[in-house]
Amino acid sequence: MTDQSQPQSSETNNPLDDLAEDLSAQMSGETVEVKNSSVEEVQGGQVKMINSAARSLHANAMDMHESAVATAQVDSLEMHESAAGAVAGKTITVHGGVVGALAAEQVQATDTTVGLLMAGKVEGDVKALLTPVAAAAFGAAFALTLAFLRLLFGRKSK
Predict the structure, then answer these.
(1) Choosing a second label site near 109 at 20 to 30 A (CA), which of 9, 102, 129, 155?
(2) Positive or negative CA dihedral for 11, 104, 128, 46?
(3) pLDDT tens digit sequence for 54-70
(4) Going edge to edge, which strands form the sheet with 53-65?
(5) Mean pLDDT throughout 67-86?
(6) In whole angstroms, what is the distance from residue 69 CA to residue 86 CA?
(7) 120, 105 in Cβ contact below 8 A?
(8) Strand 32-35 relative to strand 38-50: parallel, antiparallel, unpaired?
(9) Which pTM does this prediction carry?
(10) What mean pLDDT is predicted for residues 149-158?
(11) Regarding predicted confidence, which is higher, 131 or 99?
(12) Is 15 exposed, middle or buried (0-12, 13-18, 19+ CB in 10 A)?
């Protein structure tokens, strides 16, 4: 159970790296790398998780590879073959992942399943099990069914 703090190098040409470095400078924490570990909480400006799990995460920018997090509050998140329980953020990118509840301004996804999706803009292949519109439709149908059953059974009991 360790989280190792070490500066990150730009080995790949990920366009989010510059943004992540700028956001890291704004947060009081430094760059944190969690690799092959399980931790309770991670806080940092830029966080990178590889084959790891965390219960709670707060970061300006995060990069996850084959990892899991219960709750995450981030400005920018990039997930690769990872899972999350609940995520709140501004810009979320998911490549082959599962998220229980996702609230974001912008979501880009490939081969992703989300239980509850609340987003301003969604691009890509996202399978949302419950969207706000679907939840409203489900609630309206449920209310109408209850009203109909009350009407139907209410007349018989009189």
Answers:
(1) 9
(2) positive
(3) 999 999 999 999 999 99
(4) 32-35, 38-50, 53-65, 68-80, 83-95, 98-130
(5) 95
(6) 8
(7) yes
(8) parallel
(9) 0.67
(10) 70
(11) 99
(12) exposed
